[in-house]
């Protein structure tokens, strides 16, 4: 659709009947997006259009939505960290080993094609305070792919899959460097990206409420995990989506109740227990058990309580301060030894999820979701 908008624009601004320039411009943006979105390719497959099977009048809060936590980290290897060192050196950041930050290994477009519909994206300034790019804490994930570029990847994918709807969580990442700043200029930049003509076309313009699938197909539901507190309120008023203020999001919360619409008393129920409070020196198995426990408890609640409210569960976790450090991969999949014979949280969740067939579990965010082959199919068959 945005392709045809560009073509329309080309028609307005020139007398040519059509212009290959619009196609070249699209190619250029998608190539710039590739380090985060992944190289664009149109594939078909049943998981890439699973929402086709749900009626238009399905309430989004009643759906089971598989998501990924820290989605943009999928290519954060040692090679990527080394390749970006010249840039992270500019802000004098010493970045710990890549395993600390890597939570995924499939690109965003591959995730979309595999059925993932909720994405956790963390933005901040690039080291020159000019563009908004993606980070996981200190880890700069690409200097090329901007937030705007990556959104065009989603727009194109939705044009190619008009039955689907996507949830994008955008969060300001604060600990990218000693000089990082969430200043008025940055907030204005984000506001401008999210109110551009393309964004107005592709983001559902509902505010503080989630509607029905039929109205959301081909579009993005914005989950605003940021505050625009350095610029006038009118900028916030212009944004669509649901607001999850970082001030209300309890750190490491097992059972967060976050009111995102005070007028209608709409509450989201969130589990974001990302660092199990195990005793120092606890092993991988123990950490996995604690996280699995919190995840299952929250999913159980989603199946039983507040049927018309939004549930958002993070199955992802890490415990890097622990000795030995428990990286996201170990938490999700186990540490690959006899100490974790079953695997990690993901493997434990498969039989649990099989037992929830027919029930509402809500949005669930995973790390390394594709590494236990049964997880996504089990989830989509709920
Ligand atoms: C992934 O990272 C490697 C190593 O930095 C790089 O060569 C490759 O181009 C990256 N992939 C994409 C799609 O950007
Ligand atoms: C996709 O097709 C495979 C093979 O036929 C099947 O096992 C799977 O359940 C299907 N998934 C969805 C989401 O329809
Ligand atoms: C970016 O902004 C921060 C905070 O204002 C400042 O400390 C830093 O020097 C700026 N960096 C550049 C390259 O201008
Ligand atoms: C808001 O909703 C919560 C949970 O559904 C309920 O406990 C509370 O009483 C409601 N408050 C008002 C003012 O309606
Ligand atoms: C796996 O975890 C056990 C228990 O914490 C630990 O002794 C072992 O060194 C770990 N192995 C790897 C490869 O991480
Ligand atoms: C599981 O969680 C409950 C409460 O949330 C707690 O009482 C129990 O000790 C936990 N068990 C483990 C193994 O973490």
From TrEMBL:
- One family from Pfam that matches here is PI-PLC-X
Q: Which UniProt keywords apply?
A: Signal
Which CDD domains does this UniProt record tie to the protein? PI-PLCc_BcPLC_like
Its GO biological process annotations read: lipid metabolic process
Q: Where in this chain does the record put each Phosphatidylinositol-specific phospholipase C X domain?
A: 55-225
The leader peptide range reads 1-17
What name does UniProt use for this protein?
Phosphatidylinositol-specific phospholipase C X domain-containing protein
Q: From which source organism is this entry?
A: Penicillium salamii
Recall the taxonomic lineage recorded for the source organism. Eukaryota, Fungi, Dikarya, Ascomycota, Pezizomycotina
């Amino acid at each position: 659709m945005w392709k045809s908008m560009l073509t329309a624009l080309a028609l307005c601004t020139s007398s040519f009947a059509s212009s290959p320039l619009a196609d070249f411009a699209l190619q250029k943006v998608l190539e710039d997006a590739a380090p985060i979105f992944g190289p664009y390719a149109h594939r078909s497959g049943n998981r890439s259009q699973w929402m086709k099977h749900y009626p238009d009048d399905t309430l989004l809060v009643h759906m089971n939505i598989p998501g990924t936590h820290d989605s943009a980290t999928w290519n954060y290897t040692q090679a990527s960290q080394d390749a970006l060192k010249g840039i992270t050196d500019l802000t004098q950041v010493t970045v710990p080993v890549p395993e600390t930050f890597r939570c995924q290994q499939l690109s965003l477009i591959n995730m979309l094609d595999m059925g993932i519909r909720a994405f956790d994206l963390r933005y901040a300034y690039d080291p020159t305070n000019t563009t908004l790019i993606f980070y996981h804490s200190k880890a700069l994930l690409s200097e090329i792919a901007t937030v705007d570029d990556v959104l065009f990847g989603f727009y194109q994918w939705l044009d190619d899959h008009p039955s689907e709807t996507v949830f994008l969580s955008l969060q300001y990442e604060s600990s990218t460097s000693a000089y990082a700043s969430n200043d008025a200029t940055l907030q204005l930049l984000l506001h401008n990206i999210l109110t551009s003509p393309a964004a107005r076309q592709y983001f559902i313009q509902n505010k503080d409420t989630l509607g029905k699938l039929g109205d959301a197909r081909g579009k993005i539901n914005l989950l605003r995990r940021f505050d625009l507190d350095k610029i006038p309120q009118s900028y916030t008023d212009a944004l669509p989506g649901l607001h999850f203020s970082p001030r209300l999001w309890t750190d490491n919360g097992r059972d967060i109740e976050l009111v995102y619409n005070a007028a209608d008393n709409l509450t989201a129920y969130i589990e974001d227990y990302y660092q199990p409070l195990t005793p120092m020196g606890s092993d991988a198995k123990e950490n996995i058990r604690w996280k699995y426990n919190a995840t299952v408890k929250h999913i159980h609640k989603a199946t039983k309580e507040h049927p018309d409210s939004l549930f958002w569960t993070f199955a992802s976790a890490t415990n890097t301060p622990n000795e030995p450090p428990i990286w996201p991969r170990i938490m999700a999949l186990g540490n690959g030894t006899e100490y974790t014979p079953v695997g990690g949280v993901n493997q434990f969740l498969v039989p649990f999820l099989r037992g929830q067939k027919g029930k509402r579990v809500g949005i669930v965010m995973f790390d390394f979701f594709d590494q236990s082959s049964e997880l996504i199919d089990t989830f989509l068959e709920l």
